[in-house]
Structure formats: structure tokens, C-alpha cells
């Protein structure tokens, strides 16, 4: 291991992470296209720069740019079916990200919780761990493989299964606030906040199931703004960015 890599890991203070990307983040605002190749390419470059330091990285991508199961269910579709359609959407996004990463010479593999041999490996925990330890980025597609669970829950579940050090949740805001910053100009942003404070103050960090998994297993979460160019690299490199959610603030 090079001296530069060792120093980067020391500064970063973690060696394995899960990056959660929303499907909406792959779409250019106002565009009719579900996926923006330019945005996906930018994300791939930023991930490339981060994993060059030796970071072991898994990625979970949502599917909201194509489909939202809860919304379809509210309009009359069977909820389980609606969620399965959403899982297929995450596979499309995962394949797009895989292609962009390969263009950047980043070795990566897509593992799907729903078996589809022609486009992805089936999710096998030990195989995913081996990929990570060998320097490949692993993209987890199709959610948990079961309806009624969000991709937030997938990221929490996979992070714990992979024995990751932290979850990075890339969002459209620059952290966790004590109230909605779009409605309250005086909203306070937390640099660091505890799991208990998130519960007692009802701060919206993740959905309840995902947050419970992180709380129970003391899995820290970093919430940051993916819309700012370079933020993925900054976050994954350990820079002080966004809001850090942990056991003790």
C-alpha cells in the first residue's frame, strides 16, 4: 500500500462505506429524460476519485426518477406490485451507473436482489464482500427483493451486512435541519446530531425502518447535498460535509 493511500485512509477514518443515491438525483431538473447521462458521468468521476484512495464502496440507487411505488399504490395499484415495478427501476439506474463507472475504468459489479442473470449477479452476501475486498464497487439493485421496503432500508440493511463503517446519503439538501429550510429561513442546520435527537425532535433523516436499523446497530449516517459538484468525492474522502448522525452528538 502506498504512503499516499495510507494517509488518505487515516484522514478518512473509515475503509468501507455505502453510498445511497436517490433516483431523482440522476435526472436533470426540468428535463423529460429519466436519466441524465451527464449527471451520471459526473457521479462516476467523483466516485472514481474517491475509490482511488483505497476506499471499499457499495452503492444503492433508488428508482424514483422512473417510478414511485407508494404513489402508484395510492392511485389504486396493488402495493406489492407497485413496489416490484419500483425495484425494476432501480436496476435500470444501477446499470446506467455501472456503465459510467466502467467508462472511468472503475471495476464494478451489479448485484440484484431479484434474480436476472442476463444483466446482474444475484445478491450473495459473501460474494459481495469479496468483490469489495478486491477493490470493486458493488451496486446493489432491486432493493431488498421484497415489497414494502424502501431503498433507504436497503442501504441500511446492506451496510450492516457488509460491515460498513458509514452510510452516505446523498440528498437534495446540505444536511439535517431542525425544521424545513424551504419553509423556515431561520432553520438551523446540524453539523452533528445523535440518533436520539433525531427521534425526539422528529428530524427526517431516513424512513423509520432504515433509521431503526442504523440506530440499533450504531451505523453512522452522513447526509449531504449531491447537487454540488465534487461533493461525492469530498464526502467519501472524509471531508467535514453535511450532517453526521451518530450515537452521540
Description:
The protein has helices at residues 3-12, 37-51, 69-74, 79-103, 125-133, 151-161, 195-200, 208-217, 231-236, and strands spanning 16-21, 56-61, 108-112, 121-122, 137-141, 166-171, 176-177, 189-190, 192-194, 221-225, 243-246. The protein is of the alpha/beta class and 249 residues long. It has a single domain (3-246), classed as Acetylglutamate kinase-like (Carbamate kinase). The strands form two sheets. Strands 4-3-5-2-1-6-10-11-9 form a nine-stranded mixed sheet, sandwiched between helices. It is globular and about 50 Å long. It starts with a helix and ends with a strand. Mean pLDDT is 91; it is low at 1-10. It comes from Roseibacillus persicicus. Homohexamer. This is Uridylate kinase.
Task: List the main descriptive attributes of the protein structure presented here.
9 helices; 11 strands; 249 residues; Carbamate kinase; alpha/beta; 9-stranded mixed beta sheet; two-stranded antiparallel sheet; disordered N terminus
How far is it from the N-terminal to the C-terminal residue, by CA? 33 Å
Order of helices and strands: HEHEHHEEHEHEEEEHHEHE
| Computed Rg | 17 Å
- Mean of pLDDT: 91
CATH superfamily: Acetylglutamate kinase-like
Return residue spans where pLDDT drops below 50 for at least 5 consecutive residues. 1-10
Output the structural class.
Answer: alpha/beta
Tally of separate helices: 9
Main sheet: strands, sense, barrel: 9 strands, mixed
Tally of DSSP β-strands: 11
Percent in helix: 25-40%
EC number: 2.7.4.22
InterPro entries: AceGlu_kinase-like_sf (IPR036393), Asp/Glu/Uridylate_kinase (IPR001048), Uridylate_kinase (IPR011817), Uridylate_kinase_bac (IPR015963)
Pathway: Pyrimidine metabolism; CTP biosynthesis via de novo pathway; UDP from UMP (UMPK route): step 1/1
Family: Belongs to the UMP kinase family.
